[in-house]
Amino acid sequence: MNQNILQTIRHSALANRVIRIIYREKDGTSEGWRYIEPYSFSYDNGEDGLFAWDRSKNGIRRFSFERIEIAEMTGEQFVPRYTIQIR
Known about the structure:
The chain is 15% helix and 54% strand. By secondary structure, the protein is mainly beta. The protein has one domain (3-77): SH3 type barrels (Roll), CATH 2.30.30. It has a five-stranded antiparallel β-sheet with strand order 4-3-2-1-5, covered by helices on one side. A hairpin with a 4-residue loop joins strand 3 (47-54) and strand 4 (59-64). The relative contact order is 0.31. The model has no long low-confidence stretch (mean pLDDT 96).
C-alpha cells in the first residue's frame, strides 16, 4: 500500500476535502481523473480498500488501494453525506 496515498486520503477526510484520483480498473483501463469524497477504509478478501462517494458515478464505490495510482487533495470542501470513519 502506498503510504503517500494513504496519508492524502486521511488528510482529505479530516478536512472534508474532495480527492482526485487516477484509478486503474480490474481490466487495466482508467477513466482519467475521478473526484471522490472519502468515508471509510475496508478490508475484504485480503484487499485493503476505500469506500468513497464517486461524484461522476453519483454513488458510493469501493476503491482498492492497489489500483489507486495517484491521489491528490483538492481545495474543494464537501458536506459529508455519511459519517466519516477515517481518522
